[in-house]
Amino acid sequence: MRSRLFQLLLTTGLGAATLAGAVQTADAQPDVRDHRKDKRDDRRDDRRDDRRDRRDDRRDDRGPREAPPSAKEERQAARRGYTWASGEWDWKGNKWEWTPGHWERERRGKRWRATRWELNNGVYVRVNSDWEDFDDRPRQAPPAPREERPDRPRRGHVWVTGHWDWQNGAYAWVDGKWERERTNNRWREARWEQKDGYYVRVDGGWEAYTPPAYPTAAPPAPREERRDPARRGYVWVAGYWDWNNGNWDWTAGRWEREKANSRWRDYRWEQRDGRWSRIDGGWDAAPAYPTAAPPAARNEQRDPSRPGYVWIGGFWDWKNGNWDWSAGRWERERSGRRWRDYRWEQRDGRWSRVDGDWETYTPPAPSPYPSAAPPSPREERQAARAGYVWARGRYEWKNGNYEWIAGHWEREKANAQWTDGRWEQRNNRWEWIEGGWSNNPPPPVNNPPPPPRQDPPPPVNNPPPPPPPAVNGPSQAPPPPRDERFDPRPNYVFQRGQYEWKNGAYEWVPGHWERARANVTWYDGRWEQRGTVWVFVQGGWR
Q: What pTM was computed for the model?
């Protein structure tokens, strides 16, 4: 008992002494810091920051607070049996990311619902895309069929017209195509029928059919065919309609090589005993002579006239029972001969060709004077040339024909005026009045008037004679006459224009038509130089 009490007291005393020593040590060193406490504070701050970050992350995971951007434009051609799932914006890593669209195979009775974003309690929530049930039966009629222009007809094929199909809740057009024919079958076109308030498509297909052996209606009008240019030695065989598998089938035309003394007979259809029968084309014996007049001559575009050559006009020839055109050509002239053109003449109920050839020809002696007015002068455009005068071109009468002689330049002459030549009608014939240079006196010198004479006044009963009348007129030659072009007019004569001297200047007066008079001839007026002035001599009938 005593030993236990002693141990207890000893233990208590040692503990008190230890505590007293610790207090004294703390009082002796008051500036020493406990680093363990700082670490505990740092850990507490880190835990608080982590909790705040986790709260922010949870808040971000709830979704974006701003609407997604506008969808990007995606262009895709239609794809039969598929639906285009448009691209969409997704929220990843606290930012918007674009996911491109893709094709989804169609599902009957369903339609594709695109992804969308909805605002809920200030946060945008994504509603995923998916297929949803949908009554896709159309309630409205399809649009009118589109106009299709198929390629050139293909022999042994049938054209299947395009039609409207119902795809993903909308009408979609399906183009037409060629289908190979099937014996004793005919194509039934697709169509839409209304049943119980909806439109249902009845597909097209082949159905058994026993075609009639002969058509009961006339064939369609022949097609317009664009053929190559005419091929010499060939005949064009026109296309025709054929009856094939209960339908009209067009056979295109072609070129066939000619056969001597034969002509082609075209295919045709004739109605006999209530049905139409085809009469095949073929070669028939050609008649040796035509029984109808030839067609009108063709209008040939030839080169301009060639000196020393004669144009041989084209003509129609009769060849293998058909009219065949022979083109014209140039032939070199032959002295003392002229060409006689080809022609057709009717004799004894048939047409015969008279060949063209060179024939002896003695031209009549040309008249030294023409009886018809010359053609209108040709237009000659010449720029001014210092020190020169332009002598206009003119027509000359040569070997019974008017022949044009071009104008030329004449060097100016001092105190001289150039006057162009002209044609005048005299005694029912036309005569050429040559032009040339005429003297042009220098203008008068303005000398001062002499002083007045200091003569005594005359007697009252003897008045002075009157002064001689002044000659009024221009001192310079008139300009060349203007070019007036006119066509001949029966029973009329053209009075050419002229220059008049009026108010100190030359003034042009255009020509005009005068009715012809019996036994008289019109001659034009002209200007003549008399002394130092020019005087106009009036024209008239004589």
A: 0.36
